[in-house]
Amino acid sequence: MKRLHQEVVRVVLLGGQLRCITKVDISSGTVNESFAAPREIFRAAIIHSAYAFVLVHNHPSGTTTPSEADRELTKRVATAAKILQIKFLHHVIVGQGYFSFQEAGLL
């Protein structure tokens, strides 16, 4: 994803044994933003009967520092995941390196 020229939000859907079921691109945006609605993430998870998921998106600029919109999306998705009882395991930003919301204690 780090070679993409526009921001893409992707969800990796996992089964009960935490093996990949499929990967779904949720949205594509511009060079510096992409709008991803939690309902699109969970629609994919429900359609594929996912037990868990990982959210991944890229920053074409190469910087992996999360924006306020990235932080807010993570919070909204985490809240919805609890309600729907689908495990939200990780949110990763890919650029020159990566940023892990889990490793940073934000998930």
Please give a structural write-up.
The protein is α+β, with helices and mostly antiparallel strands and 107 residues long. Helix content is 25%, strand content 34%. A 5-stranded mixed beta sheet has the order 2-1-3-4-5, with helices on one face. A hairpin with a 1-residue loop joins strand 4 and strand 5. The longest helix has 17 residues, at 68-84. The radius of gyration is 13 Å and the shape is globular. 27% of the residues are buried.
Topology:
Blueprint: E1 8-14, E2 20-28, H1 38-47, E3 52-58, H2 68-84, E4 87-95, E5 97-100
Parallel strand pairs: 3-4
Antiparallel strand pairs: 1-2, 1-3, 4-5
Note the main attributes of this structure.
5-stranded mixed sheet; 107 residues; 2 helices; alpha+beta
How much of the residues is beta strand, in percent?
25-35%
Helix tally equals 2
Q: How can the largest sheet be summarized?
A: 5 strands, mixed
- Low-pLDDT regions: none
In which range does the helix fraction lie? 25-40%
Radius of gyration: 13 Å
Based on secondary structure, the structural category is: alpha+beta
Question: Span between N and C termini?
Answer: 22 Å
Largest sheet strand order: 2-1-3-4-5
What is the H-and-E element order? EEHEHEE
Q: How confident overall, as mean pLDDT?
A: 91
- Per DSSP E runs of 2 or more residues, the count of β-strands stands at 5
What would you call the shape?
A: globular
